[in-house]
Amino acid sequence: MVTLQVEIDTQIEFKRTLPWWQLLAIGLGAIIGAGIFVLSGQAASRYAGPSVIVSFILTGIIALFSALSFSELGAMMPLAGSVYTYTYAALGEYLAWFIGWNSILLYLFGVMTVTVAWSEYVVKFIYIVSDFNATRAIVQAPFGWNETTEAFYVTGQAINLPAIAITIAITVLLIIGVRETAMVNLVLVVIKIIILLIFIFACCKYVNTKNYDPFFPTNLGSFSEYGVTGMLQASTYVFFAYVG
Predict the structure, then answer these.
(1) Which sequence ranges are marked TM in the entry (predicted)?
(2) pTM of the complete model beyond 0.85
(3) For 216, which DSSP code?
(4) Bridge partners of 154?
């Protein structure tokens, strides 16, 4: 019996599309957005108080370890894909199928949160320019969430037009090409960094250090209501700012 074994050695080389500085800008673009401008204030008021600073530091360390883990996986399995590919290679197709659909749900929640935040900015801009309150006309979704009763309620509205328009615009931009998307992202990142620096330096003289005392407000009897545990709860809240 003669066994003929033919080995085909194929090496796939990825084409470098984006330089490192555009990849860095994409990371900054994901971080500097609704998470920084909106969620940071909400986390401070609801959970942590001034200790939200520690929440961001702790969450940043966790995000760093997560990034290093993905870098290690990317070096071990240099294939096109995301967590789906890594799960498929390590644990099989069934778990990869489950993780893939969970990733889609994660992206949907991320897109919805960001587009709704952008929509609110659009409405505020319209109000500043024309003194027209377009909130109830074009922004509210058919259903809303009441944080007091922790239940959904009917808003009486039909659609969030700015959020839909923003989603369509970003989708068209992504279809055009990754390089064009990266350039637009770079421009937006530069604008956001300039705005943040202006805000920081313009408001330095208005900082009241008395507001930092107590740095960890007294816990109100619940895990999420201030204190050290509230700071930890805020960490889970602001993690969205790092993952985009």
Answers:
(1) 20-40, 52-74, 94-118, 151-176, 183-202
(2) no
(3) S
(4) 143
